[in-house]
Design brief:
By secondary structure, this protein is α+β, with helices and mostly antiparallel strands. The chain has 19 helices and 21 strands. Helix 2 packs across helix 5. GO terms for molecular function: 2 iron, 2 sulfur cluster binding; FAD binding; iron ion binding; xanthine dehydrogenase activity.
Length: 499
Amino acid sequence: MTGIRRYIRFYVGNAYHELATIAPTRTLLDWLREERGLTGTKEGCNEGDCGACTVLVVRLEGERLVWRAVNACIQFVSMLDGAQVLTIEDMRAPDGSLHPVQQAMVDHHGSQCGFCTPGFVMSMVAGRKAAGLGQDERGIDDMLAGNLCRCTGYAPIVRAMRHAMQAGPDHFDAMADDMAARLRTLRDGTTVDMAGPTGRLTIPATVDALAHTLLENPDSRIVAGATDVGLWVTKGLRDLPHVIAIGQIADLRRIEVTPQGLFLGAAVTWQEARAALAEILPQPDEEVFRRIGSVQVRNAGTVCGNIANGSPIGDGPPVLIAAGATVHLRRGDTRRTLALEDFFIDYGKQDRAPGEFVEGITIPVPAPDTVIRGWKVSKRFDQDISAILGAFSLTLAPDGTISNPRIAFGGMAATPRRALRTEEALAGQKWNDATLEAARAAIMADFTPLTDMRASAWYRSTVAANLLTRLYADCGPQAARVPTSVHAACTATGDHAHG
């Protein structure tokens, strides 16, 4: 269908809403509390870290209902067109009985002061609905990593979650057909374009409509998941006069294997991409991608958004650069492709013209003899920004000769960047102690890192070299008989620290 719609529409619980004048950056948290009086959703950090504001966003994708926990504090209401939002107030069944998760929290004494409890409940309900989340201790920890309890009540909460995962159906299961029918009526295939005194919102229906809108409005701001842009609003108090929301453009939500590799469209979230990424990058998925934010953040934040914001400490780009990824750019009807490392020019500056946007990325499928590793080093294991992130790709011949080394770091320069001198020190050499020492020396010449609140320059340089030692211990000729000194060097990187 074609045409322009001048309002957004969605459900909160069972209540239908049409909004034609809302500010494009009005957060869902503020709107729920101040406009709807739904105060069970709490404001804690207001930056997507504590989970007290967690709500569920339900969408009909194809003919399947998909449930996602998101942080309402950095989710714009304007991004919810076509969705159904569920808050803690919706968790009781129509007969007034508690949801199985709520009952489990009562039975296992999972609430202390109670402030964080609604957010935990919402994450737990989403965890019951989500596919692919394990029910073991680690799966539950991953599920709840985005929710903080300052009363340190995690043990009973985890017990409650373990019990709730075994509970029977909830009242939403009985409502699934009605929910799907309700959301199906919101599909109209039209572009939303609404403007008012508080700003303009555009939701293009297609990628062609997006390209046309950006040509006419090159100063507008693209928003996919708002996990970064949301903080510009809540913490930076920035005004964004024209927001273009792209999260539901079907053309940008493609995940497919092409002859060139795995293609991820610009609106594919980290959570959606993880299974496909794990197929070709299993170790970085475990060590890096599962630690990008939390489930709430990965449900909203996109792989390409992590690239397009150009952060020098984004966790995705170093791994994708090491893997040889390319980025696809579009301006109007003109498309171009470039190596991902060439997209980053300087701090806050990318190779993107006015009106040009990231349409997707392609990650080549590694050859069978390629070793790809990535390690994130941060003060906390969960929910922390990297002090340094190292990613490594190389081919090892049967005789131990190294070829095609690609090494990239985040946190070591103004952009995610390759360690070219280190790659030269490795290329064509046998993987042995002498080569390792030459590579460790080269990495000191590759970077001149800064000292900041996350780490000193000395620490970053030391850890970068130690990550090379860890790579050697992990896949070098003596990997099966790693000496104690190497274990100590690897431990010194600090990337197993919890807390």
